[in-house]
Design goal:
homodimer; Tetracycline Repressor, domain 2; 195 residues; elongated; Arc Repressor Mutant, subunit A; mainly alpha
Amino acid sequence: MPPPENPLTPARILEATEDVLRRYGPAKATVVDVARALGVSHGSVYRHFATKAALREAVTERWLDREHDELSAIADGNGPAEDRLRRWLAALFAAKRRKAGDDPELFATFLELARENSGTVARYLTTLLKQLATIVASGVADGEFAARDAAATARALWDATARFHDPMYASEWADPEIDADFTEVCELLLRGLRA
Amino acid sequence: MPPPENPLTPARILEATEDVLRRYGPAKATVVDVARALGVSHGSVYRHFATKAALREAVTERWLDREHDELSAIADGNGPAEDRLRRWLAALFAAKRRKAGDDPELFATFLELARENSGTVARYLTTLLKQLATIVASGVADGEFAARDAAATARALWDATARFHDPMYASEWADPEIDADFTEVCELLLRGLRA
């Protein structure tokens, strides 16, 4: 028997799951909906993802990963650390706003996972904190920044910008003053970092 | 007819409401429970507070006001602005933690009101931002701090310390690392303020 033209891969399942989540929302979407969209049995889906929770984690991870690439390019780039940090924080805020506005159903899934303290969200946080620490450490190495401990400073930068990346604040991201508030916080933090 | 020995005042109603909220929680407590605790009809309670929502706002306001006094004494006190700002932020965080831990039912009421964007919570925020701006402005006047706009800087300090006062983060306030995280954020902000 020849292999099917379009074999059922994890990537295809995740793509269909994103569509189903967008259409039905995280509360109503089921594995049966995903299987139906793919024209396969739900057993076939379960062969790749053992539970509905595992599938939901994987789809969120894939969605968050797209954001990492842009941010990691900034973190690992050249130029003054202050400029990279400013661009990194602005890119993170822009990505979150875009997701909350353009992709509200997947954003709601992410918010639910964040509330459940899932492994996916913990890994995502670890990745972003490492990127922040890379920028801080390079600024210290170049004599631009003063910081005893790059990891602790990265955590402080993350905490201090929570209003501009924590999904709990998404409803405030359309406020007309939010951009000025963001700039004010960033500039205060950058002044605090300068050597 | 002589006046009753214990006239029904707003203060007595608010005290009874606090007790009722502590006992039944914000979801179950009713105006009838408050009236019963006072030995009066619910009509008597409604003569002082027109709706259940008005009563709930008033009890939250009274509860938040107790916190203002301690903080305003620090804001209006003497000594270096840096020291006052550090103490003010620490006192706010301590008060929030105490309330979340010791008074979870009233804290839940406050959290509900905060989500509804109530007038009480907006007034509370305005009062606290004014206190922060007072400290910043006095630091600028003494040549300790550099800040173009004390009100905008106060807002930035408030936003940057959200993890340590926003009730949405209450579940993290028992984490063993939270005190170190708080200190790291405060010291970064204070370095950013220095002239």
